[in-house]
## 1
Amino acid sequence: MFPLQLSRTNQSRIALVRAVLMPVLVTVIIAAIHRTSGGAIIVNAPRDITHQVIVQMIQTAEDGGTNPATAFDNELRFANIESRIDDIWAQAGVDVRILPALSVWQDSFALHGTSSPRDVSDFAEIFARASLAGVLNPDPYVLNMILVDTVPGAFPVGTNTVDGLSFYGRNGMVIAIGENLPLFQAGRDGIAHVVAHEIGHNLGLTHPFGGAVGLSNLMSPNGATEQLTDAQIDAIFGTEARNDDIASIPFGGTGFLRPITTVPEPTSNAAFLWTMCAACLANRRFRRIKS
Ligand SMILES: [Zn+2]
């Protein structure tokens, strides 16, 4: 498919860095951060939206509540970043919904750890502490996105840098956003790129092409564009995206992609009744998901 270039903005203000690729415990981290060009969102043509991924934002701060990690700033900028993530995942027919943080999680260790660069094993520790603190979304099919100042395996985030880390097939990502980035479009696009990349890992995608960096693919470390191949899109809906080995999914599950049921417009009384029925089904499905 031909790439669609959705915008071209400031190419120079953003530096998205640091690929983290190293073994930890029983899992190989396939994660990280990407893209030095910044600015444009370049994707393939959108597909009909058939599925949704829900992401829970969790914002950390120091013990006592000071120095909260940079989030998406105000509602307008939040909506803008979410829309850019939607632009990226629309090429797979996937809508991404981000739930705002309900409160600030006061945990200095989660915010920045105790070493620099931060120990990569802190990833598991952050999620263990989050679980104990009860700040993770209770729905195992919601992806948890913990905002920090320093991503495990990296140095503290720069003001114009965004870092991300996740594990293949697990529920969760850790993101560190430079404080300037929410303030300008290229910066918000950089945030969208990294969050979209980490969502890809959570849907089961690895770094393609042997992990080569800077390629025109969302999942390439430091990828030059946000494009996904047809094979990658097939993979997230196929068995490759599922990981039923519970031992390797300590903080969630699989099935992050939820089918979206569309309700047709009523054109007659009969159609209206049918619509009511469809609404009941949708409602039931909603309750099941929430349980
Ligand atoms: Zn990655």
## 2
Amino acid sequence: MTDLSLPTVTEHPPPTPPACGKSDTFCIRLWQHMRLDSSGEARVCCAYQAPTIAQNGVPMNTDRHSLMEIWNSDEMRGLRRDMVEGRRVPACASCYTEEARGAVSLRMRDNIAWEQGWLNEEKATIEEMVALAVDNDFHLPKLPAMIEVETGNLCNLKCRMCHSVNSSLIAKDPVQRSWEANPNAGNINPSFQRSGRTFRRVGPIESLVDELAKETASRVRRLYFLGGEPFLVRELPILIERLVAAGRARQISLLFVSNGSVVPEWLALTEQFRRVDLTISVDGHGENYEYIRYPGRWADLAHNLEQFKQLTNIYMQVTTTIQANNVLHLTDLFRYLDSIGIGALSVGRCTAIPDSSPRSRPPDGLRRSRLPPGKSCAGAVIRRPDRCQQRRRRPQPAARLHAVHQRP
Ligand code: SF4
């Protein structure tokens, strides 16, 4: 780990501004990353807390604008200028907050990764890229190294911790939609949410097909697809075939986030790409999987995981969302994944559905299936679980009183 992983010390500012890679405001994402949502609008990144990219206040869309026009819009250029000139961007607050707490933010992590060569074969330094942007009034001549594409909410599962924004089955189910903490939350065009139906736009994928053939896309090195379930999207194999036919496959790596319920035939084409990462979302083992990922079947998933393993050039891992529905069963899943040689990555906790949050009590049925009657994990008898829960929710004493209570 280099010293870049630490927050910049601001008490004694150096006489000259810090190099951009070490500055408090520079973020490589404004130079090398673009996110297209399923409505065709573009976002700065998943952590950026502001609406989609706009020109003169009007949201830009792949229906009306080329990717290069979006990439070099007034808003994107203004953000680059602010970052280079050391001004904080209010919508980047989540990164600044993490840094203030001493954590490594997304911004810091990606700046470090770029300087260490991630997606950066040409070994372009941040200072060189910034100088080029400054000379061109913050226009960039090429599309970014990484483009992230939301393929829509088309999905064949309605997982308990998921949201209508990410599952068309949930969007059509008024009961499960009522579980959502805020049905209007999520980073999706509101007109799609109000409809409560499937949204799946092919605009962003068609734009990619056209634009990846142009010279301005020659620096694109990674395409990242997430849904819904991207393997159900019919336009995706068209893009993959076009990239192979255009001779671009060897330069590009792909990343898919999938629920693992289907193994599309076209996946065999991916061996022509530079590298393919496949992240499968699995939150439980056996019955616990079926409870969470309805109407998925464990036997089908286990079969598909073996199929994915047979494909060459695919690097697979499993991602797990910690939630009330699986906290008592995670070791079963991780033992199973160990036994079949698949790495697991936990991705924090569910927050969109309050009843599935790991702060909630696991559903009674799941607790009973896991524990001897009346026992907690530590073996203590729980006679009144409802009172235990109430106690946990009681306000804690103020810090000073807490310290007094802790004294021997
Ligand atoms: S600073 Fe953080 S929120 Fe802002 S663009 Fe970079 S990664 Fe995204």
